[in-house]
Each structure stands twice: as C-alpha cells, then as structure tokens.
Amino acid sequence: MSTATAKNKYTAAIGRRKTSTAQVRLVSGSKTEVTVNNKTINDYFPTAELFKTAMGALHTAENVSEYSVTVIVVGGGIHSQAEAVRHGIARALVKID
Question: 0.85 exceeded by the pTM?
C-alpha cells in the first residue's frame, strides 16, 4: 500500500517469519534512518549477524542510502523478528519497483 501525505510519501509492507510479524514503511528521502520499535536498528538488533539479516534486502538491492525505514515488529524471537524485517523490506522494495 502506497500512501501520499502532506509531509512525505511512503510504501508499506508486512513481512512474516514463523510467529513474527513486521510492519515496514519505506520513506524516500536523503536522510537514511532505520528504526525498529522506536529504537535505532543497532540498539534493537545488537549483533552484527542480526543487523546483517535485517538489512539484507536493502543491501542486496543496493538501496541502503535511498530510504528511511520504520518498522514495528511483534511476536517470536529476535532471530525470526530480524528475518520478518528483511521480508517486509523486500516486499516494500518490490512494490516500489
């Protein structure tokens, strides 16, 4: 679902893995910022493995610096949450493309 507002335009998608669900919003812009449950991604996914898993779709698409990402993730463990975030980002990128 893409939505245009007065402030910005975003693309939303939902990613799932096991019992985790991630609601992802990608906002086009020059400021790159990734927040997960109102924390920075480095605070929410503290290990390099989890960070790499969560950001895998953006790195693969080589769009890391083009979008600001906001995620709300619930359920499951921390590993399945990282994979749900990756799935949601990938689905949002497919909608954009």
Answer: yes
